[in-house]
Amino acid sequence: MNPHPDLTTDVIRGLGWMYLVLAVMNVGWTVRSYQRDGYFESFMGIRHMPKAALWAVYTAILLLIAVAHLTTTAAADEFFLRLVSSIKDPIDVVVANPISFFGLSIALFVALIMLREWLTRPTVGWVLLNLSLLATAVSMTDYDFRQIVGKPDNVPIVGLLFLVGYFTWLYFRKANDNDRRLEQGKPLHEEELNEQVLVWPDLVYTEMICMLLLTALLIFWGVALQAPLEEPASAVKTPNPSKAPWYFLGLQEMLVYFDPWMAGVVLPTVILLGLMAIPYIDFNKKGNGYYCFNDRKFAVITFLFGFLPLWIGMIILGTFLRGPNWNMFGPYEYWDVHKLELLNNNNLSDYFWTDLLRQPLPRPTADDTVLSATGIILTREAPGILLVLGYLLLLPPLMAATVFRSFFAKMGFLRFMVLANLVLFMASLPLKMAARWAFQLKYIVAIPEWFFNI
């Protein structure tokens, strides 16, 4: 008997209920489409056919799939609706590679910005929701995917991803609407919704209803999903992989590319200070109190780049793709504790002295004085130190003289330098990641004698 079956009777029945819920959702969308979307002039030889007919056919297919799941009498290993290896294997190859994973996330982010007008159409949004739910349902036929996604710790993160997707879509929809209104000289959407209501009873009743619904949801959640309590902590038996809470997984992933003092102290501090500094360095008075994109392109793109590919992307990576020994695994790949990936990482000083100059790496000896040892260390790490200083000191003036010239003229020297360094610190993460993948570069500056590495 297979201890890890891709499909069981319970899984098949559970997916049947999921397809049934999806079908009911699309019944409502079919009615909406019939009322709003009109007709095709000609579709496959049929003239004046309602566009809702396509949604009706899709809904009927979902109902048939749900009935097939709920009424099946065949053995689970013979059930025909499952994800095949010819699809799973290429996805594992692409997703389990950090270069292709982040390359894909950057490509999706660029597509989100470039195609925001098209993506925020209601029909396109509904199609994307259906595709994501269908992909999740079909993927649940894989045992390894189901163990990762169905883990009680990870279920709320799956819900988080859907919420992030929805609210990002909602922002762009409202922003696109206001951008069009501004171009046409019409009042903003928020100005048309300025009707005031009383705190009592309107707001209080609404909050009370939300509180009751949320309480009921949490009670149902607590009954349906068991709390992931494990055995008492033991120094001789640690989890593999040992993961931080989901909201710290981004920081834990940064530890792969930065020294702990940098990933755990410097960068989080810069993030917090940067968030506090934004109101004081922002010179753009537009976009306050209403959704927009065209009035605040730089701010929106910068924030979303840091939030979606760099933060949410690393949470996805740390939650679903980092397995035993912190190796990367595909979503349908078995988490094998014996998987070993050889990493031949080198420091910048190794490349400079050993590979380029063909000389041994300078190292202080026990006979050297403190002053001479310091000189040897600084000489050894001079390439990295100069590179870091040039990155932080030379790039801001270059930015002020080129692509950010208008920003420098409006912000002045001090505010611009704060902005430039915040942008450079944010850019240091993808740059360091790319350097690790492309050149196996571990540290730009490596001074283990002083416990100082960059």
Textual characterization of the structure:
The chain is 65% helix and 3% strand. α4 (98-114) packs antiparallel against α13 (297-321). It folds into three domains: 1-82; 83-230, no CATH class; 348-453, no CATH class. The longest helix has 35 residues, at 405-439. It has a two-stranded antiparallel ribbon. With 454 residues, it is mainly alpha-helical. InterPro entries: Cyt_b/b6_C (IPR005798), Cyt_b/b6_C_sf (IPR036150), Cytb/b6-like_sf (IPR027387). Keywords: Electron transport, Heme, Iron, Membrane, Metal-binding, Transmembrane, Transmembrane helix, Transport. One of its GO terms (cellular component) is membrane. One of its GO terms (molecular function) is metal ion binding.
Keywords:
454 residues, mainly alpha, 3 domains, two-stranded antiparallel sheet, 17 helices, transport, electron transfer activity, Cytochrome b6-f complex subunit 4
Helix/strand layout:
Layout: H1 9-36, E1 39-43, E2 46-50, H2 52-71, H3 85-95, H4 98-114, H5 116-119, H6 122-139, H7 143-149, H8 155-184, H9 189-192, H10 199-224, H11 249-254, H12 260-281, H13 297-321, H14 348-356, H15 370-380, H16 382-401, H17 405-439, E3 446-447, E4 452-453
Antiparallel strand pairs: 1-2, 3-4
Helix pairs in contact: 1-2, 1-6, 4-13, 12-17, 16-17
